[in-house]
């Protein structure tokens, strides 16, 4: 049995996330840095995770899969906040909302970085296959 987290005064967002599958996506995890939440596709700010849809090598595929499951598990731990960075555009070139996800003020992206499943975002990319 799954239990949906409940919003709090600190973290007003809450949902039960599954892995995305099929054409209809509402609240699910695409990969380690992209989710669907209430029908909006969201790209997490600050991190870059390995690709799962078209990985460049087996190592990237494996890290990407682990990052996807980890993000799902972290989101399902409890309520969270979505915030926009005023220095970033509202959407990226793929029309995804750009948001930072925090829980009790701490970016959840940091947990993926600590686990070695994501890196701080930089234009050149992380080189998962190097």
From TrEMBL:
- Domain TNase-like spans what residues? 29-118
Q: Which organism is it from?
A: Aurantiacibacter marinus
Per its UniProt record, what InterPro entries does this chain match? SNase_OB-fold_sf, Staphylococal_nuclease_OB-fold
User: What name does the UniProt record give this protein?
Assistant: TNase-like domain-containing protein
């Amino acid at each position: 049995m799954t239990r949906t987290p409940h919003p709090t005064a600190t973290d007003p967002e809450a949902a039960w996330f599954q892995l995305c599958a099929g054409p209809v996506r509402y609240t699910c995890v695409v990969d380690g840095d992209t989710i669907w939440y209430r029908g909006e596709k969201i790209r997490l700010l600050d991190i870059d995770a390995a690709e799962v849809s078209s990985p460049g090598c087996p190592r990237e595929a494996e890290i990407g899969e682990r990052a996807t499951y980890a993000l799902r598990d972290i989101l399902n731990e409890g309520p969270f906040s979505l915030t926009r960075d005023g220095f970033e555009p509202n959407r990226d070139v793929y029309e995804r909302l750009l948001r930072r996800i925090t829980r009790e003020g701490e970016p959840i992206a940091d947990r993926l970085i600590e686990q070695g499943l994501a890196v701080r975002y930089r234009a050149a990319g992380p080189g998962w296959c190097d």
